[in-house]
Write a structure and sequence with these properties.
Chain B is built from 24 helices and 16 strands. By secondary structure, chain B is an alpha/beta fold. Chain B is globular, with a radius of gyration of 25 Å. Chain C is of the alpha/beta class. At the A-B interface, α2 and β8 of A face α3, α4, α18, α19 and α20 of B. The structure holds flavin mononucleotide, iron/sulfur cluster (SF4) (3 copies) and FE2/S2 (inorganic) cluster (FES).
Chain lengths: 242, 595, 178
């Protein structure tokens, strides 16, 4: 017999070892997320996927499904808190969507649309962050980095390269690369790396591919990110085609 | 002047077994012998350890005490807890800077001195205090600052400074069964061996000992679960990170009762079947290192550590000391383990918990210093006597670190269940108005609540007890704590990374007299997000000081509100200053008056 | 039915949002039936009187912006931030990482075609801030309508909802940050 747990009142089957978000996705149920990617090790840093697990809040991408568990996700309260997290991500960086190659295909933006974010609300930090255009094919726009570590995981676990890491701590945490100069050009990053396409935002951009898809035809122009399930079929989504 | 060119990288790496897991220790040694960790050192370390440079840089850039730029021959860091401030830290720091002709946070022109702040260094009973090249100097006053300035001007190597500067008394004001009675090294181990592992665990269970690091998890349950867990090896880790501002009882235990602590670790090793233990000592307690190494050496010589302990075949256990490097978050047990493994101290996803998956993903017991000391007493004397003291839910005694506005700051060993009022009487704090119990992440209580009790069921505490008199501004207390949390947030999760900085900025805004009720509501909102969504205890509690002082001392906030409705997020007139300078304008339209 | 009084202004913006407002085409006639414009680039009235709704395009980049914005806040019952610039600082805020001194240098000394340029000190010129800010960092804002610019349909929906006393609600297609 398959095991199940309840998600917003619906029975969701799961396999032993599956996280809540994986089981939900397999059943076609969307839980907002940013740092989760079905192909990479759970990370649990963005906290967007926070759900109520039997009265306790926890990340759906790191907590495992368990028989009989009662999970709430689509509640007013949780979505309001998720919106606040999204707003925090916007004000901590420099997100100028109108001039961003990723706009329309960006998961941060799409989650914000999904949650009905009308304003970043909090005072902007306007941090001074470096742009790295040294690499012939890949642009690093740290102003748009949300520190989800997907590129770190992809480079390490899929590409076997360790091009990326996170340096510093607290609000000064920042994306760093594996070279003494600190420049991407001096790493062994290649445009064909998984790490080059996995970024949910416009922080890692393939050069010469920006703005090629007209407005109106981009991934999230007309389709809520919640309808873009199932997750494993979504592979192309992270690409920087723009 | 100390010679900072001797930085034997291969030697340091070899001393740490060429093991990247020891990266934090390696970087500490580099920093201590070279004064900095320059960029090319990261490359050389990457080659020597055969790990990607980016990982070395991630670790090197995480910890406060590591830096790539030179801090000169003398790096002076003033402890910046609110208790230090109350004791005149700001004035003394300014005085030192004036005497040395330098600006804080800027290397002096001759490249000799660097002065800055650091989070509480565990000397609140002897505030204000500072670190010089990592070594603590307590009880600062003008004459001590004069002396320090002279020594620096004379370029005297630290080793030749008068030892009295570095003397740190224990200040034990009240001792009980833990700290007040003699202990013969080996006695607890002998009793444990005689009883056997199972029965020793049963004694710990019967004692009802709960963790002294703050959370109060039952120690026997943790040990039993770790004992049961399968793995290639089991580990014992003593958490001596003691980073909670206002706490210093672990410092005293390690200074004067190290045998008790190490023996508790060995007893634990016997119970869970560990051969390796670690003492994770906060970097701020660097001055204890040699002494503790000496205690370990003595215990090895006495057959209390090493192979076949006390002649018991196969009972092998040894302890290695690892030093932290300025990161409060490394007190969180899974972050501590990450740090022991050479990584940035970011809390892991739990479950699994360390008892089944800790150091090197093996079953690991992490306990507080005081917990191990209690465990040694329990092994020595049995659990029943221990359980007889205190309250049913909170057995035994507790070391309280008292500081702030009182006549006798220091360590008070009290039975659990004691009232706040009683401690205030004992320490001579007749004028107390508020007490911050268990540090910034704990509970702020007002004079109306002094009958509350120190116990897990009422006021749980890791030990800090900061007293504030009527003359203190509780808003400034809370503001100091928000700066602490923003500085110490590891940055892993969104709510805490951003939320703690938003809180700090909002408190600064209020402090500048530019706050409104809108800002108060914003802080409550951020608190709600932190409590619910943060990844670890730091984030969960980071807003406590603000919210509790808002509730209990509303006047401290209200008098700062400029108006009820709304005030701009930034200083409008101040934001025009640069343009005024560039254009040379000072006309009416070049200013934005408050309205 | 008494007409709703509406005022609009553009601070550090490009008038794109205003253009989009005009883009509602024939619905503009319906709109004019329902509302009366106070201060607005459309009417050329210079100061805002008491209004029901104020619509502000653009962020705050200089002292004059603050005066206008505060005037709007004082006079408008409901204040709406419209467009990316008003809401995030937008494109003008991309100068926030450039030192103000460098900005002045570029504009008055090294700009193309400039010779012997001088930084003006005329009190008539609005003095710029160190950074460009969204308007909700200066006054309390009641509603936000993002987009660069927001589509005409979104503006229409938003205003008709507001005029009807409904909580404005946008369809998925109408919510854009670009
Ligand atoms: C942010 C944070 C800091 C902590 N700091 C310490 C510390 O300095 N010392 C300590 O013993 N426990 C600290 N803890 C608690 C530890 O995670 C852990 O619960 C404790 O070491 C377990 O030991 P115990 O059961 O003996 O108390 C901290 C927890 C958090 C969340
Ligand atoms: S990364 Fe996404 S949210 Fe950020 S500017 Fe680009 S499109 Fe907007
Ligand atoms: S660059 Fe992209 S993938 Fe990498 S951490 Fe930043 S947002 Fe995540
Ligand atoms: S709550 Fe704070 S300290 Fe804890 S993981 Fe998150 S960012 Fe790090
Ligand atoms: S998706 Fe779960 S924490 Fe980011």
């Amino acid at each position: 017999m398959t095991k199940t747990f309840r998600l917003d009142g619906r029975e969701i089957p799961f396999k032993e070892g599956q996280t809540i978000i994986e089981a939900a996705a397999a059943a076609g149920v969307y839980i907002p997320h940013l740092c989760h990617h079905p192909e990479f090790k759970p990370h649990g840093s963005c906290k967007l996927c926070t759900v109520n697990i039997g009265g306790r809040l926890g990340a759906a991408c790191t907590n495992h499904a368990a028989e009989g568990m009662a999970v709430e996700s689509e509640t007013e309260a949780l979505n309001a808190d998720r919106r606040a997290l999204t707003q925090m991500l916007f004000v901590e960086g420099n997100h100028f969507c109108p001039s961003c190659e990723k706009s329309g295909n960006c998961q941060l933006q799409a989650v914000a649309y999904h949650l009905g974010m009308m304003t970043p609300h909090f005072p902007h930090f306007y941090p001074a962050r470096d742009i790295d255009a040294s690499h012939p094919d890949v642009l690093l726009e740290r102003n748009r980095c949300i520190l989800c570590e997907l590129c770190v995981r992809a480079s390490r676990d899929a590409d076997g390269k360790n091009v990326f890491g996170i340096g510093g701590r607290g609000i000064r945490a920042r994306l760093i690369v594996n070279s003494a100069s600190g420049r991407l050009a001096e790493t062994n990053m290649s445009v064909t790396d998984r790490a080059a396409e996995v970024c949910p935002t416009g922080a890692i951009i393939r050069k010469r591919h920006g703005f090629t898809v007209p407005i109106g035809q981009r991934l999230y122009d007309h389709h809520d990110i919640a309808t873009q399930l199932p997750l494993p079929a979504r592979r192309g989504e992270g690409r920087g085609e723009g | 002047m100390p010679d900072y060119d001797v930085c034997d990288l291969p030697g340091i790496v070899a001393r740490w077994g060429n093991d990247p897991a020891n990266l934090v220790q390696i970087l500490r040694n580099v920093q201590e012998s070279c004064g900095t960790i320059p960029s090319d050192t990261l490359d050389r370390l990457a080659r020597l350890l055969d790990v990607p440079r980016v990982r070395i840089e991630a670790t090197a850039s995480f910890y406060s005490f590591f830096h790539a730029e030179s801090h000169g021959a003398y790096e002076i860091l003033f402890s910046d807890n609110v208790i230090d401030r109350m004791a005149g830290k700001a004035e003394l720091k300014q005085y030192l800077c004036e005497r040395l002709w330098l600006e804080p946070r800027k290397l002096s022109e001759d490249g000799l001195v660097f002065v800055d702040d650091t989070a509480d260094i565990g000397l609140a009973d002897q505030a204000p205090a500072m670190l010089i090249n990592g070594f603590a100097v307590p009880s600062l006053d003008k004459s001590r600052i004069d002396l320090v300035a002279e020594l620096i001007r004379a370029r005297k190597p630290l080793a030749e400074w008068p030892p009295m500067l570095f003397e740190i008394p224990d200040n034990i004001r009240k001792a009980g069964p833990l700290a007040g009675e003699p202990f013969t090294p080996g006695s607890a181990l002998k009793a444990a061996l005689a009883r056997g592992a199972e029965a020793t665990l049963a004694e710990v269970d019967a004692s009802n000992l709960r963790g002294r690091g703050g959370a109060g998890f039952k120690t026997a349950t943790k040990w039993a679960s770790c004992r049961k867990a399968e793995g290639e090896a089991h580990y014992v880790v003593c958490n001596a990170d003691e980073g909670e501002p206002g706490t210093f009882k672990d410092r005293v235990l390690l200074n004067s009762y190290a045998d008790l602590v190490f023996e508790g670790m060995a007893v634990c090793a016997r119970v869970i079947g560990a051969r390796q233990g670690f003492l994770y000592l906060r970097g701020e307690y660097r001055n204890l290192l040699e002494k503790l190494e000496g205690v370990l050496a003595r215990r090895r010589a006495a057959g209390l550590l090493g192979k076949n302990i006390l002649g018991e075949p196969g009972f092998d256990f040894d302890i290695e000391i690892h030093l932290g490097a300025g990161a409060y978050i490394c007190g969180e047990e899974s972050a501590l383990i990450e740090s022991l493994e050479g990584k940035p101290g970011k809390p892991r996803n739990r479950p699994p918990y360390p008892d089944t998956c800790g150091y090197r993903n093996q079953p690991t017991v992490v306990n507080n210093v005081e917990t191990f000391a209690c465990a040694a007493r329990i092994a020595e004397r049995g659990g029943a006597g221990f359980a007889a003291l205190g309250t049913p839910q909170s057995a035994g005694s507790k070391l309280i670190s008292v500081s702030g506005d009182c006549r006798r700051p220091g360590i008070y060993e009290v039975p659990f269940g004691v009232s706040v009022r009683q401690i205030l009487i004992d320490c001579g704090a007749e004028d107390a108005h508020a007490v911050q119990v268990s540090g910034p992440s704990g509970t702020c209580i007002s004079f109306r609540e002094f009958d509350r009790r120190i116990a897990f069921e009422d006021l749980p505490t890791a030990g800090a007890f900061m007293v504030f008199s009527r003359s203190r501004d509780m808003f400034e207390v809370a503001r100091n704590f928000t700066h602490f949390f923003a500085h110490e947030s590891c940055g892993f999760c969104t709510p805490c990374r951003v939320g703690t900085s938003l809180l700090r900025n909002t408190m600064d805004k209020l402090a500048a007299g530019k706050g409104s009720a809108y800002d108060m509501n914003e802080m409550k909102h951020i608190m709600h997000i932190l409590r619910g969504m943060a990844h670890c205890g730091l984030g969960h509690t980071a807003a406590n000081p603000v919210v509790q002082t808002m509730e209990k001392f509303p006047d401290a906030y209200e008098k700062r509100l400029k108006r009820l409705d709304f005030e701009p997020a930034f200083d409008l007139d101040g934001a025009l200053a640069t343009a005024r300078l560039i254009t040379g304008r000072d006309d009416e339209w070049a200013h934005l008056a408050d309205d | 039915m008494t007409k709703l009084k509406v005022a609009t202004c553009s601070l550090a913006g490009c008038f794109g949002c205003h253009m989009s407002l005009l883009d509602i085409d024939e619905k503009l006639f319906d709109l004019v039936q329902a509302v009366e414009f106070d201060r607005s680039p459309i009417t050329d009235i210079k100061h805002c009187g008491p209004c029901d709704i104020g619509i502000v395009e653009g962020g705050v980049c200089n002292a004059e912006n603050v005066h206008v914005l505060k005037e709007f806040r004082r006079n408008c019952r409901i204040l709406v931030a419209i467009g990316a610039c008003a809401i995030t600082g937008g494109i003008p805020a991309m100068r926030n990482n450039v030192d103000l001194w460098d900005c002045f240098q570029e504009v008055y000394h090294y700009g193309i075609g400039l010779e012997n340029g001088q930084i003006p000190n005329d009190p008539e010129l609005p003095l710029p801030f160190d950074k460009v800010h969204p308007i909700n960092e200066v006054v309390r804002i009641d509603y936000f309508l993002p987009g660069c610019p927001p589509p005409a349909d979104a503006i229409w929906k938003f205003l008709t909802d507001l005029a009807a006393g409904r909580e404005p609600k946008l369809d998925y297609d109408m919510l854009h940050y670009d």
